[in-house]
User: Which sequence fits this backbone?
């Protein structure tokens, strides 16, 4: 199924996983009905959260901008439907920590009215400058929909010297269970391709666009082939890649398609590549050509813990339990409720949290559905983790160093190049929670770094103060010395004599003057 | 509704240490049966004594260390250690020899260093080396393989000899005993005889000692299965045997009168057992892909050096222990180049 003439490379390691895709691809794409209440977290992306533009009690239209960002890396959020802002407060958000985040809570009025919130359609995008399109993408709050949620406008703004030659459209789901990109391509391949054309234009016209889907997504492949009129059309190439986890990870996908590695201290753009998820490309199309901000996405609702697994169009901010209810509700006993797949997903502690831009999948796993790791044993250095690590790390050494709290050495072993894909923990015969150790070590190192910076600041302040005190002391001493010098000038015998003489002369002069005008006693 | 949380991944591949160990034991079965075929009941008694003592010793020390006894024994690593040691010892040897060896292997070489995963030295080989240094006479009292032996002891006669040293009426030890091919080769070479002369003895088969040469094939069979199952990393046996063949070929070509041909080295002594079952012990081996080549090759070279010029007929055990010492250093200098980095271990981000 490889496109003719398209050579593919391999990334190191990886594992073949049971895709479990049939579970959710059997049903047609559904749409979760409007919720009565939407919870829109202001921070749904990598980077800075915006300032809230609305106030409690205010009426908002569907698609109305709720926050404004000032930072370059950031994205606004928009009202998923029309209604009233009933609260701006901290609510539980889907985050591994289970912490709360600031949310705009909207009570839907049921009219789902765009009002004047829809932006002007820019159908003839070819006539627009890349800057104009980037501003539109940014204004519409588009972030990477593959799961990382990096603001797209910043990603399609390469430096001139980076010379982008390849746009990669990532349609490789790679994690088991997830089929939202597959579904999207089956239904909206034309919009995805159109989005890709807009991205190509924005990037200054790279030589080629590679659209990658996995070999076990034949329907999506076929849909794209139909839209393109072949596996290769103009600068577009359709590529089917082997389903080896984690091939959907940006760095690994780029390696498979181009044979090149993204530098550890750089970005894909440094090797002339920009990679976008297929759903992101479609969102760009909707934003530019239809003026629609990002307020909905396709979410895979799956697992044997829901009675009707499938894919649904879901408004951002819909509570997770409503999505599950729309999929027929839970099939007990549910062990985990995951956002994302079983390898890298986040376990949700509460199904009241809202669907966010990064929610590609909701996986309700029944007890026993996902094989759990057994009791933990010591590492036997078998090297299975080394064999499967896509970053070509030594996971067992990183584990040892993290456990021993040897964080400097862990960094020497490139801890921060770990993408937390979980391959090592998956194959570990000792059932070690390896990724957990790496997260722990990374956060410890970040904390230490923060402490070190704080200590540095304090030290600099302290040193500055000492210097200032020293300087003040010195200046005081100098002033004193000057004064003293002045005094000791007076004490000089020569000068004393001169002064006395001067005084005598002054007296004599006075006397003489007086003698001129008045009789003296002499 | 509320749910428990944990750190990803939420699914496991199903691999387990006890399954790894079980596969090693399974792979040992053909070689063990061959040993039994050629050397009789003494082989099984060695394995049984070693296993019994090792399991009891591990249970006792786990209790002392306040570690879970049953769960730890169930990882089967102690059985693998005992079995390997049992196969390495001369059959019909007095019972206290395997007992002392496995006691040392489990208590000192394994648990005093922290137990499974923390021991720097291969426990079976540490036990073996303790025995060969302390009891060189007993350790070289091998018996003749069945193809050469005039008499064979039955199960009860063997058992009596192992525990009491008493042989059946009218049977002298000499009727059973025979030096190993490696030992013979060594002694005869020291007596300035050429290989050609040595090989005229009925002890010799096609490429090794008669009987002996076939045991190696059965170990090879089990070993290849382990490699195929990816329980053992192929790089270690490939490095080991490759280096052994390479260096013995060089010396054989240079001087075929005093250096046996390469196949003799491969199919004698502990070379095949060592290459597939002992050097591949992951805990004590190098763990990087390139490191495993170097580690295996180091054992192969040292084995040859000790066999050719050392004071012991076979060198596998010493070679393994020496390379165990080198493993951490090898690992350090053979780190792979991380994705996106220019060179291995560069300190750039």
Assistant:
């Amino acid at each position: 199924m490889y496109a003719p003439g398209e050579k593919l490379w391999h990334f190191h390691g990886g594992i073949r996983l049971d895709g479990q895709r049939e579970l959710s691809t059997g049903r047609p794409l559904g749409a979760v009905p409007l919720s009565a209440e939407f919870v829109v977290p202001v921070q749904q992306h990598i980077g800075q959260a915006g300032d809230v533009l609305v106030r409690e009690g205010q009426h908002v239209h569907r698609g109305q901008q709720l926050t404004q960002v000032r930072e370059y890396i950031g994205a606004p959020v928009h009202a998923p439907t029309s209604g009233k802002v009933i609260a701006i407060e901290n609510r539980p958000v889907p985050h591994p920590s289970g912490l709360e985040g600031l949310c705009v809570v909207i009570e839907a009025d049921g009219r789902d009215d765009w009002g004047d919130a829809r932006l002007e359609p820019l159908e003839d995008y070819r006539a627009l400058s890349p800057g104009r399109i980037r501003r539109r993408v940014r204004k519409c709050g588009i972030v990477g929909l593959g799961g990382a949620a990096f603001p797209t406008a910043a990603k399609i703004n390469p430096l001139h010297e980076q010379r982008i030659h390849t746009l990669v459209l990532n349609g490789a789901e790679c994690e088991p269970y997830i089929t939202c990109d597959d579904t999207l391509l089956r239904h909206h391949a034309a919009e995805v391709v159109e989005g890709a054309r807009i991205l190509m234009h924005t990037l200054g016209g790279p030589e080629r666009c590679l659209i990658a889907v996995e070999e076990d997504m034949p329907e999506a492949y076929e849909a794209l082939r139909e839209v393109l009129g072949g596996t290769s059309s103009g600068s577009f190439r359709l590529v089917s890649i082997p389903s080896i986890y984690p091939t959907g990870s940006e760095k690994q996908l780029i390696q498979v398609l181009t044979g090149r590695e993204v530098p550890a201290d750089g970005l894909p753009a440094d090797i002339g590549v920009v990679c976008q998820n297929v759903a992101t490309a479609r969102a760009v199309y909707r934003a530019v050509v239809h003026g629609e901000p990002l307020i909905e996405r396709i979410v895979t609702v799956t697992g044997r813990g829901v009675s009707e697994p499938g894919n649904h169009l879901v408004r951002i901010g819909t509570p997770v339990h409503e999505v599950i209810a729309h999929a027929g509700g839970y099939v007990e006993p549910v062990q985990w409720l995951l956002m994302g797949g079983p390898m890298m997903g986040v376990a949700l502690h509460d199904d009241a949290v809202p669907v966010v831009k990064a929610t590609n999948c909701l996986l309700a796993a029944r007890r026993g559905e996902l094989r759990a790791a057994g009791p933990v044993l010591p590492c036997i250095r078998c090297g299975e983790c080394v064999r499967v690590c896509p970053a070509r790390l030594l996971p067992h050494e990183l584990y040892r160093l993290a456990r021993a709290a040897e964080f400097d050495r862990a960094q020497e072993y490139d801890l921060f190049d770990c993408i937390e894909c979980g391959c090592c923990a998956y194959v570990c015969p000792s059932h070690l929670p390896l990724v957990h150790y790496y997260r722990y070590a990374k956060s410890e190192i970040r904390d230490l770094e923060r402490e070190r910076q704080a200590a540095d600041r304090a030290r600099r302040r302290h040193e500055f103060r000492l210097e200032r005190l020293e300087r003040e002391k010195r200046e005081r001493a100098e002033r004193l010395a000057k004064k003293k010098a002045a005094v000791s000038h007076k004490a000089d015998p020569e000068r004393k004599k001169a002064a006395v003489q001067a005084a005598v002369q002054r007296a004599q002069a006075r006397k003489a003057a007086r003698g001129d005008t008045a009789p003296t006693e002499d | 509704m509320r749910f428990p949380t944990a750190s990803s991944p939420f699914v496991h591949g199903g691999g387990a240490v006890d399954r790894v160990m079980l596969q090693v034991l399974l792979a040992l079965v053909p070689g063990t049966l061959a040993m039994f075929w050629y050397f009789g009941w003494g082989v099984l008694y060695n394995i049984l004594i070693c296993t019994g003592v090792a399991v009891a010793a591990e249970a006792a020390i786990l209790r002392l260390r306040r570690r879970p006894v049953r769960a730890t024994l169930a990882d089967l690593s102690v059985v693998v250690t005992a079995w390997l040691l049992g196969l390495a010892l001369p059959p019909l040897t007095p019972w206290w020899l395997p007992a002392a060896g496995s006691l040392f292997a489990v208590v000192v070489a394994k648990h005093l260093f922290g137990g499974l995963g923390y021991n720097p030295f291969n426990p079976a080989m540490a036990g073996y080396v303790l025995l060969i240094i302390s009891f060189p006479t007993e350790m070289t009292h091998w018996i003749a393989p069945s193809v050469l032996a005039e008499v064979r002891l039955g199960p009860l006669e063997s058992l009596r000899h192992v525990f009491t040293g008493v042989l059946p009426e009218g049977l002298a030890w000499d009727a059973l005993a025979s030096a190993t091919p490696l030992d013979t080769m060594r002694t005869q070479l020291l007596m300035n005889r050429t290989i050609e002369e040595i090989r005229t003895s009925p002890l010799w088969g096609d490429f090794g000692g008669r009987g002996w040469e076939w045991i190696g094939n059965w170990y090879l069979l089990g070993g290849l299965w382990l490699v195929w199952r990816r329980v053992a990393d192929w790089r270690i046996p490939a490095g080991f045997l490759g280096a052994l063949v390479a260096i013995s070929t060089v010396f054989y070509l240079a001087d075929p009168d005093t250096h046996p041909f390469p196949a003799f080295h491969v199919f004698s002594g502990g070379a095949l057992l060592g290459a597939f079952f002992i050097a591949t012990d992951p805990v004590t081996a190098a763990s990087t892909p390139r490191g495993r080549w170097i580690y295996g090759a180091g054992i192969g070279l040292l084995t040859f050096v000790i066999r050719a010029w050392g004071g012991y007929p076979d060198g596998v055990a010493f070679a393994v222990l020496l390379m165990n010492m080198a493993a951490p250093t090898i690992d350090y200098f053979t780190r792979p180049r991380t994705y996106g980095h220019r060179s291995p271990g560069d300190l750039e981000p």
Chain B has a mean pLDDT of 91. The longest helix of chain B spans residues 41-64. Residues 6 and 165 of chain B are 60 Å apart (CA to CA).
